Amino acid sequence: MTHGAPLTLFNSMSRSIETFAPIDPTMVRLYSCGPTVYSTAHLGNLRAYVFTDTLRRTLNWKGWATTHVINITDVGHLTSDADAGDDKMELAAANAGTTIWDVAARYTRLFKDDLAALNIVDPAIWSVATDHIQDMIAFAQTIQDAGAAYEIDGGLYFDVSKVPDYGRLARHGDGPEIGRIETVKGKRNAADFAIWRRSAGDEQRQMEWLSPWGPGAPGWHLECSVMSLKYLGLQFDIHTGGIDHREIHHCNEIAQNQAFTGTPASGANIWMHNNFLVNRTGKMSKSKGGVATLGALTAVGVHPLAYRLLCLGAHYRSELEFSLDAVAASLTRLKRLVMTLGPIKAAAALDGAVLRPAREAAASRGAPFDWQRHALEHALSAPALAFVARFDEAISADLMTPQALPILEAMIASSLSAGEKLRLVASFDLLLGLGLLDLDRRVLSVRPEDAVLTDADVEALLDQRRQARAAKDFAAADGARDQLKLAGVDLMDGDAVPWEWRPRLTG
């Protein structure tokens, strides 16, 4: 049973807002393009998964169960998304002097660690490309049998002229932009792309498999078609990815789906794309240096959930400008939320019956969101339900989180009882994923990696300062204060939390 306002989503295929209605009312089927695990995910990559997590949480919060699939690309993705260059995994393994399998295992683990740090819920299925090679060969054979693929020296290539409206998702048309893909001898059309890459006779590949087209490896575009249709059916509800996927990768995926099914169907009813994370020099990437990964952000003293809040503060279809100042402001906003909730938690704790549903919902992470919402929102007052309606209206308008966050903050500042406030915080946070009931300021104060003092050193200097002040040795007290300040410690006299690490905003 769904709750509240109709959910509307922007469909990249139609370039319009559409009212969402699942194919199967009991289960929304959702596929998200996952990472190529050749290096650590950069912050721009991770924005895509904050967006997808928000979408999935919204579906769950509004009463739909989901089957969510994310793929792990450990073969086939070339250094250019436009079907050219070296295999990213082969290149990473060669540079590291190790095996592709080791590279894939390392960066898959680090990627999942980043998702956990951002409170991103695991998908129902992690689908690994190399576990589906035989499925890909069978899929490619069906496409060839349908007359939509042809063999050349380099392997098996897809003939884009064999499917209707190729490139419609990207609005390619018939202009020269469709020919951006590198010319390969024997290709019939500029936009034709590899389904199976045959290994050259003198090529030493770590990953290759026997196929009807010779030993080799699948093309990058093939895996998402195979795994999405295998796990979610020939037509499913929503496919997500970054806006860069809209231009080539998803166009090629749709073409393969059409050839495989023999229909004009694209595979997904709705295609959704998040926009880029940018800095002042353009699209964010690790190659530009600076703080480009979640680990680097933590290293300068910024809690990962501040980055999640930064992402939620912008609409997923808008470019989001990244700066250390911006993420530090999000950290301050998160700390203020947590500080404001402290007295409310204390007040609500006086009435265990009021607080219990919020605590149970926060602890029942595996339970359906609609069950948790029912427990949290049962018998709320009319003013409290009015906040629920406003929050739902914002989030139902194509995941308008920038409007939903101020509603949360206004609710916390309202005259509702402490118990009702906590119930609504718990309900709204099922969707926002900030973990507001579990956070405290000390958790949000992250020690920068280059800090010269340990927490114990800070406490010792604070004790010296207290003793000096008690002895009216103000010079010594000021010296301890200055030493702490130079080390990046903010003192808060009279506060329940007497000090915090200051993020290093010079990286």
- Largest sheet: spatial strand order: 7-4-3-12-13
Number of domains: 3
CATH superfamily of the largest domain: HUPs
Low-confidence sequence ranges: 174-180
Mean pLDDT: 91
In total, the number of strands is 18
Strand fraction? 5-15%
Q: How many H/I helices? A: 18
Label the structural class.
alpha/beta
| Major sheet | 5 strands, parallel
Large-scale geometry? globular
Distance between the termini: 48 Å
- The percent of residues in helical segments reads 40-55%
How big is the Rg? 26 Å
CATH top level of the largest domain? Alpha Beta
CATH fold assignment of the largest domain: Rossmann fold
Known CATH architecture of the largest domain:
3-Layer(aba) Sandwich
Architecture blueprint of SSEs:
Elements: E1 8-11, E2 16-19, E3 28-32, H1 43-61, E4 66-72, E5 78-80, E6 84-87, H2 88-96, H3 100-117, E7 125-128, H4 133-145, E8 149-152, E9 155-158, E10 193-198, E11 216-218, H5 220-232, E12 236-242, H6 243-247, H7 249-261, E13 268-274, E14 277-279, E15 282-283, H8 294-299, H9 304-312, E16 320-321, H10 324-348, H11 352-363, H12 369-377, H13 382-396, H14 401-412, H15 418-432, H16 441-444, H17 455-470, H18 474-486, E17 489-491, E18 499-501
Parallel strand pairs: 3-4, 3-12, 4-7, 12-13, 14-16
Antiparallel strand pairs: 1-2, 5-6, 8-9, 9-10, 10-11, 14-15, 17-18
